[in-house]
Amino acid sequence: MTIASFTDEYTSLVPPSRIFKASIVDSHNLIPNLMPQAIKSIEFVQGNGGAGSIKQINFPEGGNFKSIKYRIDELNEEKFVYMYTLIEGDALVEKLEKITYEVKFEQSPDGGSISKVTSTYYTEGDFKLKEEEIKAGKEKVLGMYKAVEAYLIQNPDAVLRNVIWTLFCCVFKFVICVVWK
């Protein structure tokens, strides 16, 4: 097995709390709507979003991949840290055991954020990663990150609307379950 690790840093005009909420916590709702040509859906296969949960990303027909599954290893909404492991899917092919990711968002001096992403690839046997494949994957992630950033800049109250909608749904479910039982 070979282990290769890469760290990248991105900057954004959006504060860490907003971009973390949108790109990580609410990704299953937001990203398929922002990028339907790239992501068909994101759904929870197991759990409710915390550590130990498993998410599946489904891609549109005709693309290179059908789906991938990843396990959430850590979700810290106070420190804006997210760690997850890609555990299943077309992207792993037969030459990768797994890929782990650690994403950290920090406040930048201008009020925006700095995100640091460390990806670690665990290969099977003596397989060597190709730089162009890693670069292509990073470009896709950066494209998603920039799409979320652009949406948040154009919609300054977007995260607040999502919070209000979530609260409304919780109250509605409570009323249905308790009052109408």
Automatic annotation (TrEMBL):
Residues in Bet v I/Major latex protein domain copies: 2-154
Residue spans crossing the bilayer: 163-180
Gene Ontology MF: a single term: signaling receptor activity
Keywords carried by this UniProt record: Membrane, Transmembrane, Transmembrane helix
One BP annotation, GO: defense response
Keyword Transmembrane helix: yes
Domain of life (superkingdom): Eukaryota
SUPFAM superfamilies linked to this entry: Bet v1-like
PROSITE patterns membership: PATHOGENESIS_BETVI
Pfam families reported for this sequence: Bet_v_1
Family: Belongs to the BetVI family.
Name the UniProt record assigns to this protein: Bet v I/Major latex protein domain-containing protein
Organism: Anisodus acutangulus
